[in-house]
Here is the input.
Amino acid sequence: MSLIHHQLLVIDDDNLVRQSIVAYLEDSGFEVVQASTGKEGLTWLADNHPSIVLTDLRMPDIDGLAILKYIKENRREIPVIVISGMGVVRDVIEALRLGAADYLVKPIVDMEVLVHSINRTLESLELRYENVAYRAELEKANRELKEYIRVLERDQKAGRRVQSKLLPKSPAQFEDINVAFKLIPSLYLSGDFIDFGLLSNRYMAFYLTDVSGHGAASAFVTVWLKQLVRRFFSENHRRRSSDFFDHGLSELIALINNEVIHSGIGCHMTCFVGVIDLKTKEMRYVFGGHLPFPVLSVGDQCEYLVGKGKPVGIFEDAQWEVNEIQLPENFSLIVFSDGILEILPPEDLIEKENYLLNTVKDNTDSVESILKAFGIDHLDSVPDDIAILKIDSKLH
Here is the structure.
């Protein structure tokens, strides 16, 4: 450690002792100021800031204890080393109580002991300054972080409002088909998304998608996805709706897959997409790596829909099979995103699926009853986004 630029104040009424200490310290590389009385030392201290004060304890006008009290009350950042011939334990205790950094007893036979004490005190002083600077930087960083979080939360809340406005109205009704949903985000924004709508006053199309990841990036993909689906139907508006009912789902999924892969967004998604003929109650549907399977409830029976299909946005040459099913007059179709699996008690996936099926079986009256059955009716956030879409045709 460099000794240069460290100014020391030596206060001692014994001229011979004081001058010998000053001479040795100057030879050791310190800048030293000396005072022959306590009053002289305090007067100099009022306008100057030494690195360390070295003071005798017993002096005729103002003693070392008074100097210690003054420094403790007014300049406590300056360390004090007491050098005294009075080796009374009471004085030592009082000096240390008042904040003395060290206590050396005269005569100092080996001046290197004094230099060692000074160096050790300077090291502690510099460490204290570093800690103060570190705390100041840390407080500044914390303030900046709090402001960043505040801005981020504000922006994400604004994004959440935008995303919410893009969601369809719930509940909704298309002839005798009722649709309702609930979306519980893990953060302000959700990577899960639900949409549905009427085609040619006969077909009700719908999808539930789960974008990989969390937060803003995933949520922005859901916004982009809604616009992509809208563009698909706009560009195919001249096409007969019956053609879309028979073949359009696989074309739509293939379009989304191609767009996701070549967009460079760094996300993929799972989805369940379907379309129902409101007149015949036939349903076409496509799995895009979706888990858990949708649950179809008819009377006292409750079972998973069957099908398979790869996630969207990973495999360029992927193809998706369109599945067909004749829905009964009265049914409930409940589609979950995979976030529901995170809150189920069982550890094993098969056990989770059995638990989900058994829970849904007796709670198909409404989305609210499903939420209550799983104990998530009052949750504002969850480990992973949870989306629940319920489609039914029941006599109420």
